[in-house]
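chain below, 94 aa
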Amino acid sequence: MAGPSDDDTFAPIVATVKSATLGLGANLFTAYIASAVINLFEDTLEEVIALAVMMSIVASMGGDAGSQLLTVVIRSMRRAISSRAISAGYLCAR
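prediction:
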């Protein structure tokens, strides 16, 4: 299943913060780039208000699709590893 392992769940807070800092920093950097690009189109957004409303919807859908895709990829990897382990165990038992 997806999600944190027991090692991640019970890790000390300092280790957790260190491991999350890189991802959060990358997220902050990409958000800054996105806001800079949006700022380039400020005049257009003022003229067409519907674009400003739709931006958050499109961003949300993109994030949801990315999360779902990542979940599917991780599950398929786990399934492939599990089937190989079962096959190897079956062959070793013969």
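The chain is about 90% helix and 0% strand. Helices lie at 6-9, 13-40, 42-47, 49-93.
thats it, cya
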